Amino acid sequence: MLMKTRGTVATIAIVTMIAGCRSDQPVAPRASGTTAAASRGPMDPALITAGKAIFRFDTYGDETFWTDTLRMHEVIRTSVSPATALSVGLKVDVDALPAAVQAALRNGTIDLNDPATTVALLKLNAVLGVVGEVDASNTLTRVGITCAFCHSTVDNSLAPGIGHRLDGWPNRNLNVGAIIALSPAVTGASKAVYQSWGPGMYDPRFNIDGLNMPVVIPPAFGLRDVKREIYTGDDTISYWNAYVAITQMHGHGHFSDPRIGVEVNNPPDLVSTKLAALRTYQFSLDAPPPLAGTFDESAARRGRVVFNTVAGCNNCHVGSVYTDVNQGVLHTPAEDGQDPAYALRSATKLYRTTPLRGLWHPPQLQGPYFHDGHATSLGAVIDHYVKLQNLALTAQQRSDLIEYLKTL
Question: Each residue of 186-208: pLDDT tens digit?
């Protein structure tokens, strides 16, 4: 595991391209009043604006880890070309590129195999989730990462991996482990772990307990009405923001949770005063609605009936956000048919019912499903519960249910 320095390895950002059902119903931790209140009513536009800047560009001072400890700035400026960056899932914000650069990308006159082009992109602040400091001689001197590294992607409007930002969308192409493994500070044993994760996967506990159980990078949209946006329902959204910023991104701040044996203090505090604005911006990011033509409308109407009757999905996927976690319910691994090992690493030892949003199939959102990604399609999700609950669905009902899920 990557240098056991108080919560290590998180999502490193380096480069880019170019210059369940109910039974006993275990109870979730009680939501804090501030989070509940913040999700109701109009949101402060000033906080949204501030939160957007934090989400996209604030490193919380984590350059002290990614630069001083992992030496990623050296890797980027000598070995990471735009082509390499693209191959590990880094994304480029087309709106940060001058018109001449956009044109050069379209006509293929920019060298995408030169690390200097990557540095040029960082200088333009065009790489999602990566912030680099470039001196007057165009040398990359420091680098850090932001929330957008894992939780933003692009619409590929200019080219694959280059387009307009989609904040809150999980970057399912991002190979975090492969990126971390580029660091000269990572041992051979740790490299093997990181390289085993694959695209769209990340283990937010590996640097805490040394176990290797990566999970699917989740979306950061549609959070406004979900009280627990963590697979295991440990706590509120701001709790997880602080956990990731301090223990994973290695930003400067203090995070303590005796329930999981974590105590990280990395002064000065550059995180706590930003959590409210960050949460407000995340709450402003609605789940993307399905596009016409991505599902069969007639089949979806039939599938809604299946969802609410014979399949019994609505027993746990309740309300407008399709989760009973808002009612304080968590589920045992046995109820969900999930491996208990990952839950045992959490504060609750349980699983939250996943809110259903953004299940339609643009390239940026195609599976996998469940916390560990073991279901590669919506059909596989249905098959999981058919077996677990001994459901009797016809082939037509199964097909219709898939079409309905694509509307959520």
Answer: 999 999 999 999 999 999 999 99
Tell me phi and psi for residue 291, to 5 degrees.
-90, 145
Strand locations in 43-169 (E): 92-93, 130-134, 140-145, 152-154, 162-163, 165-167
**How many residues appear in the chain?**
408
Domain 297-405 superfamily per CATH: Cytochrome c-like domain (1.10.760.10)
- For 199, residues 6+ apart whose C-beta sits below 8 A from its C-beta are 89, 172, 173, 174, 175
Residue limits of CATH 1.10.760.10 in the chain: 297-405
Which token pair is 17?
């391209």
User: Any bridge partners for residue 397, and if so which?
Assistant: none
Cα gap 275→270, rounded to integer Å? 10
CB 368 within 8 A of CB 349: no
Tokens representing 54 are 């934090």
Give the 3-state secondary structure of residue 362. Answer: coil
Please answer whether residues 173 and 366 qualify as being in contact, where contact means their C-beta atoms are separated by less than 8 angstroms. Answer: no
Distance CA 311, CA 397 (A): 9
Nearest alpha carbon to residue 368 among 160, 230, 200: 200
Tokens representing 304 are 């809604």
- List strand residue ranges (DSSP E) for 287-341, in order: none
Peptide bond into 268 cis (omega under 30): yes
Report which of 188, 148, 185 is spatially closest to residue 170, judged by C-alpha positions: 148
- 358 alpha-carbon distance from chain centroid: 13
Strand partners, 335: none
Nearest to 208 by CA among 260, 251, 258: 260
- Please provide residue 4's backbone torsions phi and psi, each rounded to the nearest 5 degrees: -70, 55
Q: Could you read off the pLDDT of 318-354 as tens digits, one per residue?
A: 999 999 999 999 999 999 999 999 999 999 999 999 9
Token pair 């006993």 in the structure block, residue: 24
Where do runs of H (alpha helix) occur along 136-262?
A: 148-151, 176-180, 188-195, 206-209, 237-243
Name the CA radius of gyration of the chain, rounded: 21
- CB-based contact 54:277 (threshold 8 Å): yes
Instruction: Specify the pLDDT at position 292.
Output: 87
- Please name the residues in contact with 222: beta carbons below 8 A apart, sequence gap of 6 or more: 168, 285, 286, 287, 321, 355, 357, 358
